[in-house]
Amino acid sequence: MAKSNLRVENIVATTSLGKEVPLTKLARTQSNTEYNPEQFPGLVLRVEKPKSAVLVFSSGNLVCTGTKSIAQVKQVIEAVIKQIAKIGVKVTDKPKITVENIVASGSIDLTLNLNVLALQLENTEYEPEQFPGLVYKLVDPPATFLLFSNGKLVCTGTKNKQQLEDSMVQLNKSIRDALKKAKG
Q: pTM, whole model, 2 decimals?
């Protein structure tokens, strides 16, 4: 069967610092922040290395985006903790990080007939006049694929490496079965 390769493009992770964060003070003292409370209750804190953005809420909850590994997520959270320490908020407990979503891109070395797949697979959406990719949703593991006719793909919705790998195995099996069915 087609071999596949996946590269993690983005991890969305959340954590709580267990401390209130004065966002106005953080915005006034740190240049790498954006804060418009009239439009959105969180402050955006940009981290250069690894390049990422963190939403900081006054409750101490954080949403980290833009990293490509759990190690990077930890690095970014540590950088945020150092930055808020500068405004007098001391985080003493090690924050528990929860991965909410992994976005990966890759390809399977097949040319895909998206019309056939749309007919043969369940849980698909394909509107070629609006978007050139087929949306295919897996239930277990929970994952959503964007499939393109050249074999390129994007996978979103998984929460760890194992789910990501399992979803690719499932995708390969589903495509193989669909192509068999289509041939009759």
A: 0.89
